[in-house]
Design a protein that fits this description.
By secondary structure, the protein is α+β, with helices and mostly antiparallel strands. It is 65% helix and 14% strand. The protein has helices at 2-19, 22-39, 42-60, 63-77, 81-90, 106-143, 149-185, 188-194, 200-242, 356-367, 374-389, 393-408, 413-442, 446-470; strands at residues 92-94, 100-103, 252-255, 260-263, 266-267, 270-279, 285-296, 303-317, 325-338. The strands form 2 sheets. Strands 3, 4, 5, 6, 7, 8 and 9 form a 7-stranded antiparallel β-sheet that branches. It has a two-stranded antiparallel sheet with strand order 1-2. Strand 5 (266-267) and strand 6 (270-279) form a beta hairpin. Helix 7 (149-185) runs parallel beside helix 12 (393-408), helix 10 runs antiparallel to helix 11 and helix 12 (393-408) runs parallel beside helix 14 (446-470). The longest helix is centred in the middle third of the chain and has 43 residues, at 200-242.
Amino acid sequence: MERENFISAIFSSFVSSVKERPLVRRSRTLYRYYRRVWLYSRARAWLVSFFRSLWQVLSRFNALNSLFAAIAFLLGASGLTDAAESVRYLMQEDDGKGGVGVNRFVLVRYVLKELFLYFFIAFLFFFMVFFVNQILLVAENILKKRVPVMDVVRLITYSLPMVIAQSAPFATLVGFLMCLGRLATDNEILILRASGQSYRLVLVPVLILGIVISVASFFVNDYLLPLGTLKYNRLYRSILTSNPAVELESNSVKRTNDKTLVIGQVDGESVSDLIFFDTGSDGKQRIIVADSSVVKKSSEPGVLMKLQMDNSSVLFLDRNDKRTYDFMVSDDMELNIFESSLGNMTKRTTPREMTSFDLYKRIKEMKHDEGVTRKQMNQHKLEFSKKFSMPFGSVFFAMLALPLALLFGKHNGQTIGLIIGLLISVFYWSVSIVGQIFSSKSGVYGVATMWAPDILIGFVGLAFYIRLLRK
């Protein structure tokens, strides 16, 4: 206690001595003087008035109105009164009597706010659907293999960009249909038409928000999705290296590039009734059967896991000579499973892990490479088209939502919009998946299969909009 009092006394004396120094006294006096001058200066009053007026403008109008109002205020403060009045006049509509009427951006702001609200609600719905599906696919199969919970959380986090990229286009369709259907049911669209406004007043905010959603979705799809996929595959590879049993599931069939593994019952690191089909470099087929096996980690580079097999049998078949075969029996055998055997475990950067710019450069290099097959080129073109077709599908969905909601949403517009939106979303998703599977297996039409659903949606939306104008 005495020591603490002694230190406190020394510190107090040091502070008091510093305060009594002339330089410190003069600094404190100057600070008080300039603070008193600033509090009563005209510059401070002007700044307070400026920011208070600017805040009132921002709280009264939307961003576009705020920009015009700020420009008019600055022009007026600079003495350019004629220019300021011209800017203020641009913010108004002509009332037909030589005067000005309602602010031209108020209605656009109102429609934008309603569209964004319904889009946000629909986005949360689709986000939860895809997110729960991702949890069921990833967490359920990995948690039961005693993988650390934090690794599972990281895997799910790396999958979020894919969930966001998939949710945005469908949320645009369903949200816009419900919003515009509600406006049509409440006769708000009819009131706008009766006041002399055209359908372009509603089309403008629909296209603006659709483009904004597409650009944001493209950023997620082109930057965050490759980054998340790269980190996901890297983490999953490290999990398999530390716990190879994660890749093996009970009573399942694991197909790799040119190999097939039939798995019996899996209990920890023990696997029963394992059958392995393989084709050697000499073209001979090899079938390995084991009563029981133990999965072990491997420290050798390129080897994912080792299977120590007991009471194993190996059958060699020659395709050129089907009348002969070789048969071998072993009490103890070791089988190495290489990383290259699994398609998703390769250390090479896949098209899904590239940005659009990197993928474009890669496609240009592949055109001059004679060793590149047609199927490989098609896969790269498919992924390149997918980076644009999926996010910018929001624009096509927005074009379709407007005429559909106004034509069929006069009664129960929200419910009709929800039903129609879900049906179109399922149709779009099915066509996209079938097109990708067909293009991947056939090795052709990668660009066409990715853009075909968007073009179809855009064509139908344009046809319905023309019908709406003629009605």
